[in-house]
Amino acid sequence: MTEINYMTQGQAEMPLLNEKAVQDWIVEVARQHDQRVGCLTYVFCDDEYILKTNREFLGHDYYTDIITFDYTNSRHIAGDMVISLDTVRSNAEMLGTPYRTELMRVIIHGVLHLCGINDKGPGEREIMEQHENEALAVLPADVFQES
């Protein structure tokens, strides 16, 4: 059974997502990777919260856009994904990409990790980017609610 939860930590404000459209997109991307979606939790946070999380759980002393905790069992992906909206925003500005596009890239990045795609080894970053781009190509137009 698919369950996707959203919450905030730190000073982050909840993105205005059309949760049904996002869920359908995530389920489709997972299906394309021969996976089913179980329970996913997205924690939207600020830079300070993700730095604290990175230090506490991974021993890394730097900011990042996403940390994925993988609880996948068999072919049902499951996990917690902590996303720094501060870093997503600064990355979007640095790359000249719309914030919403960068946010969706990071949201699906965590799902792709849960599907078994890595990005740390030689050539893996390019493979991850290819899968992100393929996922963004099928992103429904209505994933954001208008404020």
Descriptive terms for the model:
alpha/beta, single chain, globular, 5 helices, 147 residues, Collagenase (Catalytic Domain)
Provide structural commentary.
The structure is a single chain. With 147 residues, the chain is of the alpha/beta class. The chain has one domain: Collagenase (Catalytic Domain), CATH 3.40.390.30. The chain is 46% helix and 20% strand. It contains five helices and four strands, in the order E-H-E-H-E-E-H-H-H. It has helices at residues 19-32, 47-58, 85-95, 99-114, 124-137, and strands at residues 3-8, 36-45, 66-70, 76-84. Strands 1-2-4-3 form a four-stranded mixed sheet, with helices on both faces. Helix 1 (19-32) links the parallel strand 1 (3-8) and strand 2 (36-45). It starts with a strand and ends in a 10-residue tail after the last helix.
Task: Tell me the layout of helices and strands.
Blueprint: E1 3-8, H1 19-32, E2 36-45, H2 47-58, E3 66-70, E4 76-84, H3 85-95, H4 99-114, H5 124-137
Parallel strand pairs: 1-2, 2-4
Antiparallel strand pairs: 3-4
Short description:
By secondary structure, the chain is of the alpha/beta class.
